[in-house]
Automatic annotation (TrEMBL):
Belongs to the UPF0173 family. Keywords: Hydrolase. Pfam families: Lactamase_B_2. This is UPF0173 metal-dependent hydrolase Natgr_2751. Residues 20-202 form the Metallo-beta-lactamase domain. PANTHER family: UPF0173 METAL-DEPENDENT HYDROLASE MJ1163, UPF0173 METAL-DEPENDENT HYDROLASE MJ1163-RELATED. NCBIfam families: PRK00685.1. The keyword Hydrolase applies. One of its GO terms (molecular function) is hydrolase activity.
């Protein structure tokens, strides 16, 4: 599994022959790429409907969309997506097969209104657990990453995601203000019991500027990988 960070919360995840693009937003200082320079992925995964997570989703509308039904409906109308998992999206707790990947939607503690003149409700915000085998296949030798999306620290990381879905790595927001900060994200890494942590959602705007190396100092048992923009980590 390859994880490429394009800054903020935008990740290109490759599982076997399947490419997934999470929360496409390229107007950030960590990437030099334009959306047009990215090959259309097989799947686009959206954690929630805030502009800094869906701004460039429409550039990849030929992909299959993975999001809540409410967000799928919005993206169909706004961006022209014609294909979604299950024909209607998915919801919290569900697992869908996406090519060579299995994607489980999990809870995130955040908001999810799309602030237009109509103030659209985009359903619940989410995180994703992405694996190369079904997460409940006890006999499988799996490689699994958890993308927390935008969230605060929550006990579900310890009681459900870490305990039952058992990710090897976690993509955790550390910017504070809108999500967890460095210290709460370090607690999340401990609760998840992962081997690898990759920080995200920081240094994009002044309110979320932070030092990822300081975050690394708070993390005790996992290896922290601070990526440069457009850098790839192989899990």
């Amino acid at each position: 599994m390859e994880l490429t960070w394009h800054g903020h919360s935008t990740w290109h995840v490759s599982v076997g022959d399947t490419d997934l693009l999470v929360d496409p937003f390229f107007d950030n200082p960590k990437t030099d790429l334009e959306p047009s320079e990215i090959d259309t992925p097989d799947y686009v995964l959206l954690t929630h409907g805030h502009a800094d997570h869906i701004a460039h989703a429409g550039e990849f509308s030929d992909a299959t969309l993975v999001a809540t039904p409410e967000l799928v409906s919005y993206c169909e109308a706004e961006f022209g997506f014609e294909d979604a998992v299950g024909g209607m999206g998915m919801n919290l707790g569900g697992t869908v097969e996406c090519g060579d990947a299995f994607v489980t939607m999990v809870r995130a503690d955040h908001t999810n209104g799309i602030m237009t003149e109509y103030d659209i409700d985009a359903g619940m915000p989410a995180g994703f657990v992405i694996s190369d085998a079904h997460p409940h296949d006890a006999g499988a030798d799996t490689t699994t990453v958890y993308d927390a999306g935008d969230t605060s620290l929550m006990s579900e990381m310890r009681d459900v995601i870490g305990d039952h879905l058992a990710p090897d790595a976690a993509l955790l927001p550390i910017g504070d203000h809108f999500t967890m900060g460095t210290q709460q994200a370090a607690i999340a890494a401990d609760w998840l019991d992962v081997d690898h942590v990759l920080p995200q959602h920081y240094d994009t705007f002044p309110p979320i500027e932070t030092d990822p190396e300081a975050f690394a100092e708070y993390v005790d048992d996992a290896e922290v990988h601070v990526l440069e923009g457009d850098e790839t980590f192989e899990l």
